Design the sequence.
């Protein structure tokens, strides 16, 4: 009788649908649509603005390693460099109000870089080797009103900085006016071996703090992410006002 009850429960629970493992999606993205491109993709003048319009696949928010791209090469070179990657040690080497705040909240804000960050780091590392010329990129990730779709913008000028964010924020504001939510803005603080003040610090600079505060006011930015490719700080908008701004 006990066996029969167990069997009935399993049928009611839909056990038949769970007998075959569901193949997880691979951590990858289709070819993007290029919106603007100029200069040498591997040189100091290479500029790129591109977008992916994709399903909101949970794999992007997982810790899966990329199935393709240059991220594996980035990690191999990082290992060979012997650089410390503990995010708290990197933060401690460059004291600031923001770095102290992130350190105090590390348990809830800092996570290992996930699939999305690792894909993006791989793209930039393929453009300019991070261990030859550390450069930045930035993303805006928009979520459709029904949360089923993502629009992921990627922007870089192949420099150790982004400059003006308007190439990203202008199209994001158009999407926002059409009902899309500004899920997150992400950018990278690349490893700079030998330069403790710039070395993979997952914390906003004062201009970063200014930008994230203002973009939350303007467009409802939900989270600010800063990644070094190994760790990512994910700051919720409710905390933006705690950071020193310009
Ligand atoms: Zn920054």
Sequence:
């Amino acid at each position: 009788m006990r066996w029969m009850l167990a069997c009935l429960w399993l049928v009611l629970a839909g056990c038949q649908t769970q007998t075959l493992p569901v193949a997880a999606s691979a951590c990858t993205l289709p070819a993007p649509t290029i919106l603007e491109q100029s200069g040498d993709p591997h040189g100091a003048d290479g500029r790129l603005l591109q977008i992916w319009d994709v399903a909101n696949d949970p794999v992007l928010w997982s810790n899966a390693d990329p199935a393709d791209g240059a991220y594996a090469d980035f990690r191999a070179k990082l290992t060979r460099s012997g650089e410390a990657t503990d995010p708290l040690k990197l933060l401690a080497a460059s004291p600031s109000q923001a770095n102290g705040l992130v350190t105090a909240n590390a348990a809830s804000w800092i996570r290992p870089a996930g699939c999305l960050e690792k894909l993006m780091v791989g793209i930039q590392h393929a453009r300019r080797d991070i261990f030859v010329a550390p450069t930045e990129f930035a993303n805006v990730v928009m979520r459709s009103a029904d949360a089923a779709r993502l629009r992921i913008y990627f922007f870089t000028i192949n420099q150790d900085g982004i400059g003006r964010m308007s190439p990203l924020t202008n199209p994001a504001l158009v999407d926002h006016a059409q009902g899309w939510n500004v899920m997150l803005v992400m950018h990278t603080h690349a490893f700079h071996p030998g330069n403790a003040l710039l070395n993979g610090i997952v914390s906003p600079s004062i201009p970063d703090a200014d930008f994230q505060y203002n973009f939350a006011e303007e467009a409802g930015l939900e989270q600010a992410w800063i990644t070094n490719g190994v760790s990512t700080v994910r700051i919720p908008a409710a905390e933006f006002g705690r950071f020193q701004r310009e």
In short: Residues 187, 189, 205, 208 surround zinc ion (CB under 6 Å). Residues 1-22 have pLDDT under 50 and may be disordered.
